[in-house]
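Exam revision sheet. Question 4 asks you to relate a sequence to its structure. Input first:
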Amino acid sequence: MLNAKFIWLACMLSMVLWSMASCSEDNIQKSADTHDPEKVPTMISRDVQTVVSDSGRTRYRITTKLWKIYSESKKPHWTFPNGVVADELDENFQNVASLICDSGYYDVQKREWSAIGNVRLSMRNGDRILCDRMYYDERTTIVNCMDHVRITRTTGDKIETNQMFYNSKTRRSYGDTFIHIEGSGRVIEGFGYEYWDHDKRYVVRRVQGIFPIDDSRFRR
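Answer key, structure tokens:
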């Protein structure tokens, strides 16, 4: 489903401060030192669109209307209250993967990302994910999609669940919540599941039912 390239999100946003030159000085505002650092950002950038290079090649693009940096806070963090779009680019500068969300947050010390509201993921392998919340821990490389998670695979399978973890190192998806899988001529429902990218295999621990369906409508 997801693949290791998902890590581009963290790399992209962690490195983006190095690319601030792409934002005009008119769009960067520094806050006064007398303000409360817990409530007032150290820096505010508006209408940001910047690219990030890695190993000498442009790989990522970030677009956001508002970026607030709280570097003097007791818990340094960044916020994207008006949403963020993050794209991975190939050698021809074509978009191959993307994240879109209504608002974003990054905890600098914990190295944890949060994407909240209408989260849309388009993966390099072609899978698409919709959910209400997504969290990513850079240290463990584990993604946590939560609340009304809907997955459309390149195989045509449609998955609905309430929580999905993904370990980018093992390329394994898993969860303990209810899962509904449609595709390959059947519906599978149950609690607790695993899925491996390399063999596209599901394991449902507590199967509640397997029902035959006509899934041709998904393959048009």
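Marking note for examiners. The mean pLDDT is 81.
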